[in-house]
């Protein structure tokens, strides 16, 4: 299970990085076009908004796998290791619940805006694409967090890069 989650998280993160690079490219091209030719990329803000949201969603599983989220452990530094692991397991469960709720609501939102035929203002892109694109990253982040919670609750150390 660990290897599968790790590989999926890696592929999602690479896809997220590619989306981020494409968005950066569009931004650079738009700024250069605006400055040099007075012609920015039409819909650059829409592309940036949708692309960065997708980028973040796709990178969340890798961030969870790497235990790269901010943890405030000021009050738990002196507690036994087992207690810290149980608290970390509870944090992973809360992360999973949050990601599952967000995934559920993005799917509901995608269905809703698809049914209403909502589109972006300038490019006329279907809005449901933006919503639907967020769900896979959120679902994988939830799975990684649940796997980590199970390992921590069972007393296994979960270090960076290990689900």
List keywords for this structure.
163 residues; 74% helix
Q: How would you describe this structure to a colleague?
A:
The protein is mainly alpha-helical and 163 residues long. The protein has one domain (2-70, 78-153). The chain contains four helices and no strands. Helix 1 (2-37) packs antiparallel against helix 4 (127-153) and helix 3 (81-115) runs antiparallel to helix 4 (127-153). The mean pLDDT is 93.
- The stretches of 5 or more residues where confidence is low (pLDDT under 50) are none
Q: Main β-sheet, in a few words?
A: none
Give the oligomeric state of the chains in this entry, treating copies of one chain as homo and distinct chains as hetero: single chain
Determine the structural class based on helices, strands and strand pairing.
mainly alpha
The overall number of domains is 1
Write the layout of secondary structure elements.
Blueprint: H1 2-37, H2 44-65, H3 81-115, H4 127-153
Helix pairs in contact: 1-2, 1-4, 2-4, 3-4
In short:
The protein is mainly α and 163 residues long. The protein has helices spanning 2-37, 44-65, 81-115, 127-153.
